[in-house]
Amino acid sequence: MRNKLTVLFAFILIFLFSINFSLAALNDSTVTEKTNQAYTWLSAITSGNSSKFSAQDNSFLLLALSYDTALAKELRDSLNSQSKSNICWPSSSCNVKDTAFSALGLQRICQITSGTEDWLINQTLTPTELIWYLQVDSSSASNCTISYDNVDYSIKIGDDKKIDKNAGSCLTRSNNNYWFKVASSCYDKTFTVSCSLNNAQDQFLTSWLYQKPADNTFFVSSDTQKESSGGFIDTSINAKCFRLAGSSSSCDYESTQWATFYLSKTGGDIGVYLPYLIGYADANSGKLPEAFLYVLTGDSNYADNLLAKQKSSGYWQATSSSDKYYDTALALLALKDYSAGADRIDKAKAWLIKEAKTEKISNEISYASWATSKKDTAFILYSVWPKEPACIDTTTSGCEEMGFSCETLSNCDKVSTTGYFCTYSSDVCCEEVIQQQSCIELKGDLCGSNEECIGDSEYSSDGTCCLGTCTPKVIPITTECVKEGYDCEYSSCSTGYDEVNYDCDSGEVCCQEIAASEPRNLAWLWIILIAIFLILLVLFVLNYLKKKKISEFKPKSGYGPGYGPGYPPASAGMRRPVQTRQGENSPRFRTMVQQRPMPMRQQASRTGRDKELDDTLKKLREISG
Asked: Mind listing the pLDDT tens digit for each residue in 491-502?
């Protein structure tokens, strides 16, 4: 009995496992179905209509539909007609952001926009919003000369690293005389530094630091130079931003984000734009600066900060007025390869699939989109579920087909300038991959997701390697809602969350996830599984009872009832021959034999099998009741 029950339960477990496996496949098929429906919708609204759309819409459509040769050609032609000499966009009033969008779209189909990169670089200026400091340091006390505007200024650096005097009006001592503060009117000047040290083998160096006004945080530029005693260093502030449309003196943060992202794919020098993007990230939190900074630098701290901004239901929305579909696509564009956030990324993807609205056109065709927005739908597909693009009217091919590799920018030492494409938008075509050492080789530590590095860090083959000390992150708790472990969302809580009475910032409500329950679409499955289990159990018990009943009437030793050894077994249609003795044929004797009572079968004692039957019936009554 126990063996049979074991077999039964094993069968049910195998059945459940197969159902779960099919559910996983169903989820994958749902994603494929939804994204294909979204691609179908984009294709339908684009075909023959691209000339009616703005340059920005056509750019996003081309990023998503670059796999379709016919549509890609149509969108390319529309974009070219909307350009000024195929250099900048739109033709009526060229601006940095639209030009960067358009150039990204055309680059995806291997169309080199000759002159666009030069035009963009000509739209840059030195950001005066940042405060800059020049550090001159040496391994021992030294006499130095700093020259600019054809004037030489002599200074001394003591054993305590302090500077003895100013170097003209452009460079005044600051920060307890350790650095020079640069006057904003001198940001475009080049400074020549030379130092004489006691030991000819000793070195001196120059480096740049910067900060945002009214902010105590200092950032160290990557532009550090070293020279031996008596040598010369030419150094200048290496920081640029892209100008605001219609302005000759103001930087625009979003334009700088997108133009730098485009230039990173062409092999251009993007280091000059990082100081502005880093220094003014906090002031532009509504632009999700962490997304671009993670793509451009590979620093996992930016990825962690970006994940911290994710809403409880899975999406990103930088401000109450931000487009949550656009923000979510931008975040996932950056986090594609960030393994430490895999669960959060999957949650965001699941939210997007749930938010995709389906419209049935016919029995054969269904459309899907996000808020029926061309831009949002195209950006989501490009960032999260891209299709391999095609090169149009050119012999240029895919990056990996040409023997190069698609890498994140932080892993690439030399980006190809030939326009070879990569499927994933955050990758660049890399001719030379950086041969990075492991964190162990660098003698550092990999900080955990809840830690931050205090001190220097370097990129390693394992990720960002901390050469300082990994310490627990201090997460500022700014609202009562967050302190209680809940999440603040704008206006109203998402599906699956209830509002709770804790304070958030203005315009936000506090949301708590509803207690987890079985998904509604799986309720029917569990009902069927339980029904199958009960049916199998009932059939098993009935079969057992049937066999038990038969065994009660079956002869114990193979003989007919009431007969002992020495008699042949009773069988249907046969009678036992009776040997007669003298007097047995007399009527009186036959009557006595016929009236002789048959032996009574003894009551069978209760066995362990009967107890098992009682237990089984009891369990059956409990399940049924």
From this structure: 788 777 888 888
